[in-house]
């Protein structure tokens, strides 16, 4: 997420990237984000806050360097096996 915002690609809620949020303000320029973490702080928080322990279910690690190489039918079949209705 840090890299996406730093390069101008974000649709995050303003409350995540500014210290003061006003309901009527809906957009800002990237250089106005006064609560954006730098890369080192972002990594530090990920490593020290136990984020790796948080899970909602089975973890699927997929190399998406090239999206065209992902076997989507196989992935979808695996996810469907985990869904309990």
UniProtKB/TrEMBL annotation:
Source organism superkingdom: Bacteria
Protein name: Uncharacterized protein
Organism: Oceanobacillus indicireducens
């Amino acid at each position: 997420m840090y890299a996406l915002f730093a390069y101008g690609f974000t649709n995050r809620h303003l409350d995540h990237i500014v210290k003061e949020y006003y309901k009527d303000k809906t957009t800002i320029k990237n250089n106005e984000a006064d609560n954006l973490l730098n890369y080192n702080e972002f990594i530090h928080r990920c490593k020290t806050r136990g984020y790796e322990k948080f899970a909602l279910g089975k973890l699927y690690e997929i190399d998406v360097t090239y999206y065209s190489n992902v076997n989507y039918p196989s992935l979808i079949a695996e996810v469907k096996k985990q869904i309990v209705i």
